[in-house]
Specification:
The chain is mostly beta strands. Helices cover about 0% and strands about 45% of the residues.
Length: about 100
């Protein structure tokens, strides 16, 4: 998974759902003029536990706080695709 992507656009999966989200870079008068600049990924969305097929349920959100720290929230669904579990902050994962 890439660490940097073009800023301002979510990157979709094969079904058009946003899976990687990067912030917009500032465009004010003091901002550098570099339209091709790269920004760090701030959010990763996972659908159907990462399986290629499924019902389109968002099962995990990973928010990258800074380089070594990420916050993970996990969602669970019943057989009718109703959200029944939210495990907020399911571990702050530190990358080594």
């Amino acid at each position: 998974m890439p660490n940097e992507l073009p800023a301002g656009r979510p990157t979709p999966d094969s079904m058009g759902r946003p899976v990687l989200i990067v912030p917009n870079l500032p465009t004010g008068g003091s901002a550098p003029r570099n339209p091709g600049a790269l920004a760090a990924v701030v959010t990763e969305n996972e659908y159907d536990d990462g399986m290629a097929s499924g019902d389109g349920n968002m099962t995990q959100i990973t928010q990258h706080v800074d380089s070594p720290t990420s916050r993970v929230t996990v969602f669970g669904f019943d057989w009718r695709n109703r959200q029944i579990v939210v495990e907020a902050g399911k571990g702050v994962r530190n990358r080594c």
